[in-house]
């Protein structure tokens, strides 16, 4: 009976698989790359960083304006004709957007730290671009 040795042994690297899977939907080992990040992906990282800064500023603004929530609601009441507390939905939406972008920013920085090629998933690209644009 002949015993064959395996040609290669790959360690699972679960943390790296989760990191590249969540950031760029690259769950398989062969999809990960240590090649240099492309200029387009660097541009997307810059856009992501800009979006992070803008959502942080917007969240800080809505967090600090809590004394003027009533004035904002009165302003909307005078324009629309019905009373509704718009401050809480705006604050919650802003907090959710900031949390999402901050999570992507942390994953991108982890990609840089471990030397993996950054490849942001197209869904994250669209959502971070939408968060940056004014409504």
Automatic annotation (TrEMBL):
Q: Name one GO cellular component term.
A: plasma membrane
Give the UniProt keywords, A-Z.
Hydrolase, Membrane, Transmembrane, Transmembrane helix
- Cross-referenced PROSITE patterns: PROKAR_LIPOPROTEIN
One MF term from GO for this chain? glycerophosphodiester phosphodiesterase activity
Tell me, what is an example of a GO biological process annotation in this record? positive regulation of neuron differentiation
Residues in coiled coil: none
Query: Which residues are listed as membrane-spanning?
Result: 43-63, 86-114
Protein name from the UniProt record: Glycerophosphodiester phosphodiesterase domain containing 5
Provide the species name.
Monodon monoceros
Give me the gene this protein comes from.
GDPD5
């Amino acid at each position: 009976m002949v015993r064959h040795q395996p040609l290669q042994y790959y360690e699972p690297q679960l943390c790296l698989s989760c990191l590249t899977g969540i950031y760029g939907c690259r769950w398989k080992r062969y999809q990960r790359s240590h090649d240099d990040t492309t200029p387009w992906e660097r541009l997307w990282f810059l856009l992501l960083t800009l979006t992070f800064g803008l959502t942080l500023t917007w969240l800080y603004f809505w967090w600090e304006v809590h004394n003027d929530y009533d004035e904002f609601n009165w302003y909307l009441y005078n324009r629309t004709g019905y009373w509704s507390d718009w401050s809480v939905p705006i604050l919650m939406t802003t907090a959710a957007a900031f949390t999402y972008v901050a999570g992507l920013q942390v994953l991108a920085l982890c990609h840089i730290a471990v030397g993996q090629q950054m490849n942001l998933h197209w869904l994250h690209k669209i959502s971070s671009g939408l968060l940056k644009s004014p409504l």
